[in-house]
Amino acid sequence: MRIAFASCMFTRVCPAQPVWGQIAQQAPDHLVLLGDATYLDVAGPPLPQAMSDDEFAQHLFALYAELLAQPDFAALIAALPAGSVHTIWDDHDFLWNDARGAEERALHGEKIRLSTAFHEQFRATLAAGLAPGSFPAAYDDARFWDPLQPPLTTPSRQLDADLWLHLSDGRSHRTRTWLLAENKRTMFGKAQRDAFAQAIGAQPQAVHLWASGTTLAGYQHYARDQAWLHGLAANQRLLVLSGDIHRNRLDAFYTGGWPLHEATSSGAAVRDAVAVGALRQNYGLLDVDAQQVAIRLFRNGALEQQRVLSRPNWLPI
Ligand SMILES: [Fe+2]
Fold first, then answer.
1. Distance 222 CA to ligand 1 centre (A)
2. pTM score, whole prediction
3. What spacing in Å lies between the alpha carbon of 271 and ligand 1's midpoint?
4. 43: pLDDT confidence band, cut at 50, 70 and 90?
5. Helices (H) and strands (E) in the chain, counts
6. Distance between Cα 151 and ligand 1 center (Å)
């Protein structure tokens, strides 16, 4: 079982995106996109904060349509079997840099409903392997404008025997940290934490892949969510796949039980600071068999870092 993962791509900065061809050559069974599939706040002015809801929907439609039409991206998605592409979002495809749903909902609730609906349609289009008509043809399609649009779904998907992928939503429910008591801060909200705890706890022998836009370093500001994830990882084989930082990185964290591992691959098709700096072509691969999980992180087509985890004791080999 081979799983590719990547994050952070922007057609306006990188019209050419060779990273998808590099991933296709590795013939993965699954692809996980870990957020910032587009950058709603980098294409302007105007910034999305200043757009009307109608303008924001047109903006979302244009940027998602550009990505879905990017030839290397489209070729990779089309080559993968239906149901094998998975995506979460981060701040830039949710609203804007560092956007937190719990703070923005009062003023920008309709924009959140729109970006949620667009991400759900993007997700469905990827799951359908870009089947003709799978992405709505116009920004004013009713599927984008449901006044009762629920928050982004957060499924747990079984990829193989004893291998699960959990698609978190770290944006819809996130609070600020500044001038907010630690026990009121959250990234995920209690309902999401409880549902994932149940899904993970129900499979005690499995390897659990926790898809997170934010790297674990970012969890430090949210003590309850961090303690919750560490508590799960103490008793389960948990590997975080994360994005956000436009770098590749491997890490591991002490939990009091089994270690919590993290593999970050970010910067599939952006520059170092989105629009300026060095061009990034980063992606990661997991090769999972009955004995081990091999992690490899690639940069510009070359292997940059690797680590192999033993499934029996969940330690590096
Ligand atoms: Fe990013």
1. 20
2. 0.98
3. 9
4. confident
5. 7, 14
6. 21
Name the fold adopted by 2-310.
Purple Acid Phosphatase; chain A, domain 2 (3.60.21)
Q: Where are the domains of the chain?
A: 2-310
268 Cα to the center of ligand 1, angstroms: 9
CA of 79 to the centre of ligand 1 (A): 25
For residue range 166-213, list pLDDT tens digits in order.
999 999 999 999 999 999 999 999 999 999 999 999 999 999 999 999
Bridge partner residues of 265 (DSSP): 248
Put the strands of the sheet holding 30-34 in their side by side order.
Answer: 85-88, 30-34, 2-6, 282-288, 292-299, 302-310
Q: Is 22 helix (H, G, I), strand (E, B) or coil?
A: helix
Task: State both tokens at 297.
Answer: 């992180």
Residue 247 alpha carbon to ligand 1 centre in Å: 10
Q: What DSSP line would sit under 186-247, residue for residue?
A: -SS-HHHHHHHHHHHHT-TTSEEEEEESS-GGGGGG-HHHHHHHHHHHHHSEEEEEE-SSSS
Q: How many whole angstroms from 51 Cα to the centroid of ligand 1?
A: 21
